[in-house]
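Cross-posted from the bioinformatics board.
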Amino acid sequence: MTTAAPAPKANMGQPIPRYDAVAKVTGRAQYASDMPLRDPAYAYLVTSAIAKGRIDSFDLSEAQKVRGVVDIVTHENAERLEPAKFFSDGGYASTTNQPLRTAEIAEEGQIIAVVLADTYEAAREAAHRVKVSYTAATPTTSFHSAGTIAARAKGQVKRFKDDPKVGDFNTAFEEAEVKITAEYETPPQHHNPMELFTTSVAWNGDSLTIYEPSQFVYGLKNGVATQLGIDPDQVRVINPYVGGAFGSKGSMTPRTAIIASISRRLRRPVKLVATRDQGFNVSTYRAETRHRVDLGARRDGKLTALRHEGWEISSRADAYCVGGTRTTTRMYDCPNVDSAVWIVRADRNTPGFMRSPPEVPYMFALESAMDELAHQLKMDPIELRRVNDTTREPIGGKPYTSRSLMACFDEGAKAFGWAQRNRQPRSMSDGDWLIGYGCATTCYPTQMAPAAARVRLRHDGRARVEIAGHELGTGAYTVIAQAAATRLDVPVEKVTVVIGDSDLPPAPVAGGSNSTASTCSTVMMVCDQVRQRLFKALMPNESLSDKAKETVGVGQTPSGRAARSDQPLDREKAFDALGVNVIEEYGEWKPEGAPQDSFRAMHSGLVRIVGGPDFSGRIAYAFGADFVEVRVNRFTHEVRVPRVLGAFAAGHIMNPRTARSQLMGGLIWGVASALHEATELDERYARYVNDNLADYLVPVNADIPQVDVILLSEDDAHINPAGVKGLGELGNVGTNAALSNAIFHATGQRIRTLPVRLEKIEA
Amino acid sequence: MRSFAYQRAADPAAAIQALAAASAGNNPLTEAEIQPLAGGTTLLDLMKLDVMRPRAIVDINPLSPAWATVSLENGNLRLGAMARMADVAANPEIQQNYPVVADSLKFAASAQLRNMATLGGNVLQRTRCTYFRDISYEACNKRNPGSGCAAMDGFNRTHAVLGTSDKCIATYPGDFAQALIALDASVDITGRAGTRTIPFAELHKAPGDTPQLETTLAPGELISGFTIRGRWPRSAYLKVRDRQSYEFALASAAIALDVEDGTVRDARVALGGVATLPWRARGAEAELKGQKFDDALAERVAEIAFEGASARSHNEFKIALGKRVVARALHQAVTMEI
């Protein structure tokens, strides 16, 4: 075992290497824009330079003269597509601001023309030669802009049903022995996955094939079919690998149907690779947020009152909100809780999911406030969490299916050397550098969604698993192969996994960290169907008695560990008895509490996620504790982060190697979200200023000297058959607060507005 | 990016010949229709962004190795313009005798860029002003003379506080140039009339009313090399930025000192990340000379270095930061072991 492949503890799978490792490091893995097309036209987008107003005219004369230009599509000649319904209103789209319909401009970077040419270079040159005359209006940019209106999220956003509250916050806060009231802000951020936003399409008669990096091939297939007015069965979306997504490739963006319609008109395949800067507007982003947190507590640290209000930016077109109060109001034991979420509309593109959408901004506010409270109480911040730890969430009184928060804090603290911390701020230093230690709770809701899979097993033990899951770099191929190998009792090398294709049985969006739980629970169930057939072949007269369950694994415990019967199934003998060489099973699985229409919705590319705080009769979260050491230069105020450590418990760990990698990436992301990443706005024009990877900062290796991940053993029988909580979005929650808390410890100065820039540190 | 003609110059004479047509049209150098290509790390970038639109480029890479030699003879350092940043930064003699030169190169850009970029091209690197680099903003006096300045009242956190004008506040982005100007380097410029040598301090121009004119180079001229007289083992480059690598300076200082028994005999101070051009702080140098070094002197010197600085809405912090960087860099240079 190595650092990269930690030895499995109880209830963990083997840290086998990635299924797709060799293909990726040798460049054989084909991403969507690598797919060969026959004589494609290359598309290049022209996007709006204003955020609000209208196009008066185009001058295309210079552009049309560029050799190789095939067509230039604007609102004046574009095909009329069917409107796209917003995903949270039961549709597929990331935005309802459908470009190329009218001369109106509703956001910076709106697609206003598509240039098609025989080469990428000609398309780009012609796009640069398109001249546009606008009449610009003054846009509303953000919270600070004049004339903004805030309205409650409740009632506007279907997904956000209610503002959690319980008890009598006002009285309790009034009477509290110790109080904290603080306001926090987080900046807009863009996902910037390595792989750009590309779309390649080819028509074959009435059938359309789309190669596009997607976290949801069924959603994209159905969404595009709706916009084009064709049968979804005529659309196939293929993307075996996604080069990073983080939420930006979850919902259908306008570009896909536009490119498909142009291709249909040209009768020619079309390939689009939007540029890095266009990507800031072509897809979604994490909008800026503001928070006010009020905490009331007894002198011993016990919380008596908690209120969290959040304000979020959305577009004029759509009411998007993340509503993280559903998590922050349930994190600690507190009898009197109040909350509210507000949406502020601006002339911006519609925000969308970005890794841990609610938890990153909202937990920053809560976990910063908890640190402020600990300081005021002169209490160790870990002890404050311990005093307020709970096995039931306070809003509905539902029990946590499992909660290893304090175990994470204790193991993490030990490994980090937290005991060496002098509680007094500005008390630790090394030469020119002030040293600070900070910690914070991290959490992520455990979520599942219906999925289907097909499993084929040959007599020689070779197996093939088909499921329209998604490999975003997370390890989906690997854990699906492991689930199948374990359940079929075959070596993992004999399992072939086929994913990323909408012709396969449907899987949910790879979002909300539901993928491993959903796909592995489904694959395990279908593998059991295969085993049942083998069992019946061997014992045709037996019903599925207890003995049968033992033998074929029906009714196994959630983690699947007890599935192994003492007498392994004699596969060869069973195949001989059946008289066939291959058997194949298809099955549809849905999590407990999934709505009635789940399976139908699943085939239509509509998401029915359950879990987290909305689980029936219980609440399910994964937990962790983040620790950060910062060093702040007393002269220049530069901030360094010599080490970050996270301890996490997330139910059954399918593969400690891929889990560690995900969590490590999350911790680094968390450092970035505290210290580096911020999309800067030009307040005058509602435009993103630093829309490139030179000016939009993400950490480089020199910024991240040491990251340690500790995986705790945890067994949770109350979530899903795989026993998996999902951890893709667990690692990057809380890190921002831990870092900012460390800055306070180092300097005595609290920075409540992210990112921490050196000019915000005063002395 | 526009389509362009590409040609490769076999030797300096051919390069000068090929670039000769660039002097036609009376354009400023940056707008010349024919542009030389060395490492290409700025030119290609700006061409892709459609900011620079040359009709033709002349690849001068065949001028290496002749123009890429580095030599330290008779106490003078001669750097060929085609030497790559990475090679010069890794040169042990330069690290020992001119740490400010080695460090200014080492702390710049990324390893990949330092492997490609040449010294001559590096000093001519154009500003990173996001409004200059985005042609969808019409207002840019540098790109589009007379059109205004979008940065002046825009998001200008990284913009300059020294050497600015009411036409342009774009920061000069480089690091190496601060070392050159601090050490009184000279620069050799080769053109049709032969080679002329000027002080490096006379290469760049402040924006004034004509921010489109960035240097005193004429179209068709090439930088062929740099010379630094004397050795400066007690010298340092301190660069402060938003991340630890691959990022431009928010504020930096190039310091070179001659200290004997705690008294400063000679001092050089240049500032980066805060000015519109490589910036020599001569007032600060004068204050240092003949003085016993202590923290109070360092702070006084830092104040003088930023006399006359003026900030816009987002870059006020650079004045305070810049002063702290100067004081800290002086401290670093004084205490370094040589």
